[in-house]
Protein 1
Amino acid sequence: MDNQGKIKIQCGHLHKTFHAKNRKQDEVNEVIRDFNLQVRENEFVVLFGPGQCGKTTILNILAGLEEKNSGTVVVNDIEVTGPRQDRGMVYQTTALFPWLKVIDNVAFGPKMQGMKHSDWKKKAQYYIDLVGLTGFEKTYPVKLSGGMQQRVGIARAYCNDPEVIFMDEPFGHLDAQTRYLMEEEIEKICNGEKRTVVFVTNNIEEAIYLADRIVLLTNTPTHVDKEYVVDIPRPRDYTSPGFLALREEITARIDTTNL
Amino acid sequence: MEDKKIKVEVRNLTKSFGNLLVLDNVSFEVFDGEFLCIVGPTGCGKTTFLNSLTKLYDIDSGSITVDGEEINPRKHNLAYIFQEYSTMEWLKVQENIEYGLKIKKFSPEAIKQRTDIVIQMVGLDKYRNYYPSQLSASMLQRVVIARAFAIQPDLLLMDEPYGQLDLTLKYKLEDELIKMWERQRTTVLFITHNIEEAVYLSDRIIVLTNKPTKIKTEIINNLPRPRKVSDLEFVKLRNQVTDLIKWW
C-alpha cells in the first residue's frame, strides 16, 4: 500500500481559524495549523486524535463542507472548493431523511442525478444487501436501531459512487458491543467494495482494527503528530499481542504529548 | 470471598413491563466493600435491573435487602450515577456536590469538610464556582462522581457512567474511580456494556443473559491492581467474558 497507487487526496499546509465575535473583543480560535496529508487510492486512513482537536473540521474541509483559510486541498485531482458527488460523507449523527424509507434514503443521490427508476432501484438494493439490511427497504429510519441507521448512512454514501468516502466517527454513539459488530461489518464492506476511506475516530481500538494507516493528530492547533502504518493481517483480533502492543505504543504517545 | 459480609441481598427479583418479562427471578448478593460489575448483551435490561434495585421502578415480586433490611432510598445511603450527566444546571459545582449532604441534613461544618475532600479528589478545586454549562463533559461526570462520594454511600450504583466519553478521559476517570473506591471502600455496583471496562474495574463480574434476563454466570476477578489491559491474564479473562456475551 505504501508506495503504490494513485494519490487520491493531497492536502498541504492547511490552516483554519474560527473567529467568534465577543462584546469586548474578537475571540480567535486557531484550530488547524499546517496540516499535511496524502492518501492513496483504496487506502483506509484513520485520523485519530483527542476530543475537540479539530478532526471533524479537517474532514469537513476535505469534503468541501467548510472553508479553509489557506493551504491546498486536492481530492481526485480536483481542487476542493465545495461539495461534490465524488466525495461521500457518513456523519456522526446519522443525518438520514426521516420522511424517506430506507431505500429512498439510500437512493437519494442517484435519484437526484436523474437516474432511471429501474437503475437506481437495483443499485440501492445492492448496497442495502451489502450492509445487511435486506428486508428493511420499506422501513422508516425511526423504526431502526442506532446501528441499523448508521448502516443506512453508509449505504447512502456508497450508492452515490464516490471516489472517496469520509466517515466522521460514525459509531461514536453506539454501545461498545454494537460498535464491535459495526466495525466487523465495515471491514467486510470495505473489502467487498474497495474505496478510499478517511475515517475519524477517538477510539484507539477502532482505529487499529480498521486502518491501513493511522494519522495521529495533536491538540489544537492541530497538525500531524505521527503516522503509524498498521500491517497486522486482517481480520484483526482486538486482543492479539500485535494489536495490544500497537495500542499501548499509541496510547503512550498520546499520554506524553497531549495530556 | 466467603467470610465477607453481605451488603445487599437480592432474592427472586422479577419485573415485567406489560407482557414483556424483563427480569426473571434474579437472585444474587453484593458483599460489603466490593466492586461488582454487571455486564450483558445490548438491550438485555441492565438499566431496568438497576432501576428496579433502587426502587425507581416498582418490582413485581422478590425482595431486596440492605444490611438485612428492606431497601429504602430514604433510609439507606444510596448514590446513583446515571448514564447521562445529571448535574443540576442552576447550581454551581460546589453546590452540586453539597446537594446530597444538605438533603441528608449534615451540619455546615461536615458539609464543608466533606465537600472539600471530594472536590480535591476529583481535581475540581479551581472550578468550585463554575456552572455546569461552563464545564466539559468529563468534568461534569467528575462533579457527579464527587457528589456521589460526598455522602459516603453504603451503595454506589453506576449505570454506564463513561459510555459517552473520550477514551483517554475514560481511562483517567476509571483510575480516579478506583482510587476513590480504594480510599473509601464503598460498595460499588457498576453496569457496563464494555467488557474491557468490567475486567479493568471489578472484583467480581455478573454476566446477564438476553431478555428475559437471568444471571448466566459470575466470575471472580482477582487480577492484581493496578491492572494492565495487555497483560496475558487480563486478555484471557476479557476473552472469556466476551465469549459468554458475544451476540454480534
Protein 2
Amino acid sequence: MDLNTIWFVLIGVLIAGYAVLDGFDLGVGALSLFARSPEERDLHVAAVAPVWDGNEVWLLTGGGALFAAFPAVYATVFSGFYLALMLLLVALIARAVALEFRGQVAAPGWKGFWGAAFGVGSLLPAILFGVAVGNVLRGVPIAEGFAWQGSFLGLLNPYAILVGLVTGALFVMHGALYLRTKSEGALEERMRGVALRTFVAFVVLYALGTVATGFVSPFLFARVTEPLGLLLTLLLLASAVGVPVFTRAGKARLAFTASSVLIVAMILVVAVNAYPVLVVSSLGPDKSLTIYNAASSPRTLLTMLVIALVGMPIVLVYTVLGYRVFRGKTRAGQGYQAV
Amino acid sequence: MDALALARLQFAVTVGFHFIFPPISIGLAWMVVVAEYLGWKKADADYVRLGKFLGKLLAITFAVGVATGIVMEFQFGTNWSRYSTFVGDIFGAPLAAEGVFAFFLESTFMGLYLFGRERLSKGMHWFSALMVGVGSTLSAFWIIVANSWQQTPAGFHVVDLPGGGQRAELTSFAAAVFNPSTLPRYFHVVTAALVTGAFIVAGVCAWHVRRDDKLAFARKGLKLGVAWGLAFAILEVMPFGHLHAQQVARTQPAKFAAIEGLYASAPGNAPLLLFGVPFMKGPPPSPGMAAPLEIPGLLSWMAFGDFNAPVKSLQDFPEDERPPLWLTFVSFHNMVLLGVWFVAIMALAAWRLYGGRLHESRGVLKALVISIPLPVLACQLGWVAAEVGRQPFIVYPGLQADGSPFQGLRTAVAHSPSVGAGEIAFSLLLFGAVYLALFVLWLFLMVRKTRLAGEPAPA
C-alpha cells in the first residue's frame, strides 16, 4: 500500500468516526425539536452535553487532515461549495453556542430560543453533509488545473438532495437509538418507535439513492462483485437488518452498535468503489481529483502518518474513557444548570 | 470593493473575532487549574468556589471560541484556495497536528471537567482541568507554527505543479515547525494569554471585593490574579516581547521598520521612537513622523545589542514591498503602551497587597476592574501589527532549503478565483451579524455569571 492509499484510508477513518459520533448528537439535536416538554428537551441536551464537543473535533481534524494530505481537494471543493459551507458553518456555530447558552438563564423565552437553535443547527448539518457527499459522488464541474466552474444552485440538484435526505434520516435514526440507551420510561419507549419509523424511511430513501446512483455515477458499482466489495456490501446489509431486529428485541445498545456499523459500512462501500477517485469531475474522468493528482508530497504524507500513529491511539484511549465516565442513563438535573 | 479586498476584510473580521476568545480560554484554564488544585489539596471551600466560578466563565468563553474556530478551519479553503494550494503541503500538517494533539484533548477533558465533578475522583477531576489547560496551550503552539511559517518560511522548496502554478513542498518538518519566528512568537502569545486570564480573575474579584470585602473566595482570587498577573506581565515585556522584537528585526526588517516608525534612513545608528504621529502624504520626506520623541541609538542597541548597529529603514525597501504604515505603527505602539500599563498596575496592586491594604484601596481596585478588557485589546493590537506587518505578502519572502531565494507569495494572488465579490459580501454580512450577536450574548453571560457568583452559595 502506498502512502496515498494509506491517507485515503485514514481520511475515511476520520469521516467515519465523525459520522458515527457526531451523527448521533446531530440526530439527538434534531429530535429535540419534537420533545414533548421543556424537561424532556433538557434530557436531550444533557444526553449529549458532555461528549458533543469531542465528537465535533473529528470534523475539525478531518478538515485539517484533508488540507494536509490532499490540499487540492480542500482548496477546490471548499471554495466551490462556498455558500453551502457558509450556511453549514453558521448552523454549527448556532448549535455550539446554543448548547452552552441554553442552560444559563432560566427564562422560558431564552430556553426556547436556544432550544430551537440547537435543533435547527443540528438538523441542517445532518442534511447538508449528505448534500455535499451527493455532489462529490455525482460529479462537480472541475476543469483543467482544478478550476471550479460550478454554481451554488448547481449544488441543489435532485440527486444531492436525495443523498441529503438519506443522511438526515440515518442520523435521526442513529440519534434516536442513542437517546434510547440514555433515557427511561416514556421517552425511552418513544425513541424505540422513532428509530423503527426512521429506519423504514432510511431504507426507502437509501434504496432510491442506490438506484439513482446507478444512473448518475455507475462507476460506484465498479467493485461490488470483487471479494472486498462483496464483503462490505454484505456487512452493510447485515447491519441494516440488525438495526430493527435488535431494536424490537429490546437490545438498545446492540441496536446502536448495529447502526454505527451500518454508517461505517455505507462509507466503506462508497470508498472502496470510488478508489482512487476523491472528487468526480463532471467534465471528464481525466479531470477528477484523485489520491495521486491532489496529494501532498510523500514527505508530508509520511510526517502526517507519524503524527496520526502517535496521536490517534492516545485520542482513542481517552475518548473511550470519557464515554465510560458518562455511561448509563441520563437523569434530570444532570448537564447544564442555570445558576 | 473587489473580491480580494472583501476576502481580506472577511478574514480580518473572522480571525480577529475568534482571537478574542482563545487567549481568555488559555489564561482562564490555567487559573482554574491553580484554583482547583488549591481547593483540592488544601480542602479549601473558597478555592473550590473560585474554581467553579472561573470554570463557568471558561465554559462560556470556550464554547464561543470553538464555534468561531470552526470557521477558521474551513476559511483557508473557501476564501484562499490559491494560498491553500501553495502552502497545503506545509501548513496542513500543523493544522492536523493541532486537531490530533490539542483539540481532542481540550474538548474531551472539557466535557469531563464540566460534567464530571460528581462522577470522577477529586484527583481525576483536577487532572481533567489540567488537560484542558495543556490542550489549549498545545493548540496555540500548532496554530502559531502554521502562522509563523507564513512569516518566516523554512524547511521547504518551491516546485512547479503539473497543472500549472507552484507550491511549497516540505524538505524538513523540524525546520518548518521550528522556523525562526515560532518560539519567540509562541512564548510571547502564551504569556499574553496568561496575562489576559490573570487580569480577568483579578478584575472580577476586585469588583466583588469592592462591593463586599468579606467575600473570602474573591479575596483569595484577587491575590491569585495579582500575583499571577504581575509575574506574567513582567515576563511578557522582558524577555519575551523583547526577544520577539529582536527576531522581527533580524528576519522581517521591513515589518520592523514599519512598526518602529523608522521611515527614513539615518546615517549610522537608529533612534528609538517613543512617540510620533505618522503622516503619509505631503512633500518629501514622506512618509514621515510629526512631533517625534526619540532616543538616539537606542533602537540599534535594543535590536542588535550595539548602539552603532545599522537598522534598515523603509527607504531601503521598494514601495511594493512595504507594509501599510499607519496601522502597523499605531497598533504596535499602543500594544507596547498597554504592556507597560499591565506591569505598572499589577506592581501597584501587588505592593498594596503586600502591605495588606489592597482591599481598602478602592482606586486601585477600580483600576483593576477597568483593566479587565485591556489585555484582550493588546492581543488584538499585537495580532494586527503581526499580520498587517507581513503585507503585501501572505507568505513572506525567505530562503529555500537549498539556500536559493524565495520571492514570497503575495496576498493579492492568493484568494479563491471561483468565489465572487457578491458571495463574500453576503457571507461577510452574515458572519458580521452572527458575531455581533454572539459578542453581546457572551458579554451578557460573563457579566451575569460574575454578578451571581457573589450571592451566597446554595446549601
Protein 3
Amino acid sequence: MRKWLYLWLVILLGTMSLLLTGCQFKDVDRRAFVLAFGIDSVQKEEQGGQGREEGEEGEGKGKDKGKGKHSIEVSLKLAIPEGDPTKRNQEAIVISQISSSIPEAVRLLKSKVDKELDFSHCKTLLFGEAYARNNISEMTDWMVRRRDIQLIAYNGVARPTAKEVLDVHPKSERVPAYYLILSLGKEGTESPFIVSTFSYNLRRHLTEQGLDPVLPLVEKAGEDTLLINKAVLLDNQRVRAELTPDEARMFNLLTQRGLRTSFNVEMDGNIYSYNMESNWSKFKLVKSNKGKMVVQYTVGGRATLEDNTDAIEMTGRILRAVSKAASEQWEKDIKQFLVKVHGTGVDPFGWGLRYSAMSWNNATELEEWKRIYPELEFSVKADVQVRYSGMIR
Amino acid sequence: MPTKPNEQKMEEWLVEQLTGLMDFEERSLGNSGDIKMIYLRSLTDSDTVKRFIVVPSYEMDVQEYENYIFSFPGSEKTKDRQQVMEFVMKGYIFIRIKDSSYLFDAMKIEFSGISSSITEAIVQGPNDALTENIEINVNLIRRRYQSKQLRIEPLTIGNVSQTTVVVMYDDSRVDRDVLQEMRKRLSEISVDILQSAGELEKFISERKYRIFPTTVVTERPDRVVFNLAAGKVAVLMNTVGYAVIAPSVFNDFFTAMDDKIQLPLVGWFMKLIRYIGLFLTVTLPAFYVAFTSYNPEILKIQITLLIAGSRAAVPYPSFIEVVLMLLMMEFLIEASLRLPKAIGPTATTVGGLILGQAATQAGLVSNIMIIIVSAVAISNFVIPLNMMAFTVRVLKYYLIFFAATFGLIGIVVSTVGIVMYLSGMRSFGKPYLEIFPKRAYQGKGDKQHG
C-alpha cells in the first residue's frame, strides 16, 4: 500500500513538473530568429575619419558621432514568422545597435525585441566594407565561439555598409535574407562570379599560414536589388584587394571543378562563345633553372560552342583552331590574373601551404617561403577542347 | 467387492452433485428399468439423445443395448467418479446399464463458422481465420500442414473454465529447448478462467511488466503453418480464435503474410515501409517537441518560421499541445473501435474533420501539429500485428516525455534505451532483437511442406 502511494506521488510530481516549464524552455514562437548578421565600423569622433581607408561614404550616418568609445554597429535582420504558408512574403525587420563590442551590442539589441534572440538560423554574416578593411578578427572570433551560430554560415563583405545591404528587401525574396543564402551558397543561382566562403573556412584560412581567405562582395545596387559579382582578397585580418567580376570568375575557374560559365574568344575577327561543360586545374611548384620558384598551372576543360557572330559553318578544322585560340586566351588571362594576385601580396590559392607541405624543414620553411614569395614566377598551360553540337541542314 | 452397490452409489453421487442445476436431466430408459441416463441438457445435442439413446432403448434388450452403446466411437466404460463428473460437464451422457457405467459423446457445439480474417487482413492470399472451435482450428492447420511429423499435444488449463489447450509443433523441426520451456510454463499456469489468447500470452511470457509482446498472437492459420515450418511452437485454445506462436523475434511483428506473396523487391519495399512507419509514429511527436522547444536550428528556415508562425497563437508549450492532440487522436481511435458499425463513420467525421479544423482555427493547436498527428495515426496502422501496434501507440509518450525534458538529446538517449531494452529481451530463451535469426530448422532450400 505504501509502495503504491509512493509510486503515485512520483507520478504526480513528475506530471506537475512538466507543467512548470521554467524560463529555459523557450518554444519556437518565443524566439526571434536572426537570419542575417551585419557589422560595420562607426567613425570615431576623435580620429575624425583620418584612420579610415577608402570606400566609406555610406557609413557612420553621423548621428552617433560624439560617443567616442563606440566603434562598431551591429545590425540584425529578424524574421517575423507568418503561419499562413499561402501568404506570399515573410516580413522582416532590421534592428541595429552601436556599441563598443559585439557581445555588448547583442545584449543591447535584446531589449529592442520582445523575443529571445536566436542565432541558430543565422546563415549569413556580412562585414561592412570599412570594417573589413580594418580588422575582422574580433568578429570571426566571436562568430566561431558563439555556440548557436552554425559554422556553415556564409560570409561576405557588404558595400557600402552591412546595415544598408541588410535593409534591402529584394522582390524575389520569400523568406527574409534568403536571397543572400541562395546566392552566396549557390543553392539557387549558380553564377560563376560568386565566390562563396563558409565561415569555418574563413576562420581557418585567416589563421592558416600560406593560405588566405577570399570573400564575396555584396553590393547594394538599388532600392531593392543586390549585386554579387565581385570578390575581395584578405590577408590574415583585413581586405587587401578587390577582384573584378572577370577576376572573380577566373578565381572560381582555378579553384572549382565543373564551373558553369561561358567565355568568348576572338579569332579572325569573329567572336566565338563557348559554354564550359567541365574544367579542371592544378598547379605545381617547380624550381626553375634560374633557381627561382615557378608556379606551374595546368588548366583545361571541355566546352561546347554556343554561337559565333558570323554564322560560320563549323568544321573540325575550325573547331581545332577555335580550341587553340581559346587555350591561348586562357593562358594569357590566367597568367595576368595570377600576377595581379601575386602583386597584392596575398595567397588565396594556398601556394605557401603547398610549399610547406612539400618541404621537410618544418622549422624554417615559413621563413623560406617569405623569402621565396616575392620572387615567384608563373607559367600557365591551358588545354580547352571546344566541341560543336552538330547541325542538320 | 460387489460392483452393483458401487455403480448405484456412483449414480446417486452424480445426482447429488448435479441437483439444483437448471438443465439437469435424469431419465430411466427401456422397459426393464435397468437403464438410466444422466446429462446436462444445455451441453448436449437433443437430437442425438433422442435418436441414438432413447429410441433404441425400447427396440432391443438390455444386453444388445449395452453393446450398441459401447460401439459408438467416443463411448467409454468407466468407474472413475472424477472422470464421470468432468465428462458430464463437457456434454457427455452418463448411462448406467445394469452394473456398468458408460459415457456417451453427445456434445453440442455452437461456434461461428470459418470467417475471413479481420484483424490481419491481406490483399491476396488465403482469407480463412481461426474459429472458436479447436477441432476446426486443428483441421484448418492440418489441412495446410500435411506432415506426419506434426504433433498435437492436448492439455487442460483453467480450474473453472477447463479450457482445452493444444500445443502444436513439427517434431522434426522444433527447437527442443523451446518446446520444453513451453510445456513447463503451460503446466505451471494456475488460473480459474482462461478465455483469450492474450491472457495465455501473459501467463507464458518471461516478465510480468513489459511493453513489447514476446509471442505472436495471430488469427491466421497460414501464419501458424508458416511458423510451424520454421520450427516454432504454436499454442491453440478452445473457444478462442487466436493462436499463440513462440518464440518470436521483433521482426516477426512486422511481417505480413503478404510478404511471401509479393515479388521479392516489392515485399522488401513493403517491409521497409513498415519500419519507416514504426520510426515515424514513435518519433514524430517527440521530434516536434524537440524542434519547437529546444533545437529549431535543425530544421530549414522556412519550416522553422512556418512552425513559429502557426504556433504564434498557441498559448501552451509544445508538449502540452502534442499530448493534448495525441490524446484526442487516441480517443478517436478508441471511439471508432467501440462504436457500433452503423455510426462508426460519424466519429471520424466529427473528430477528424470538425475537431481538427476547429482546433487550428481557434488557435489551440498549430497547423503543423494536425499534420503530425494524422501522420502518426496513419503510420501506426501499417504495423501488421495488433499487439505491436498497441505497444507502439504507448511507446511514443515515453519519447515525448524525454523530448520535453531534454530535447533532441532526450530522444537520442531514450531511443538508445529502447534498443538496449529490446536487446535484453528474450522470447523463450531466444534473443528478441535478432535481426537475422537463425531458423530452428534449416531445410533444404527452405521449401514449405504441403
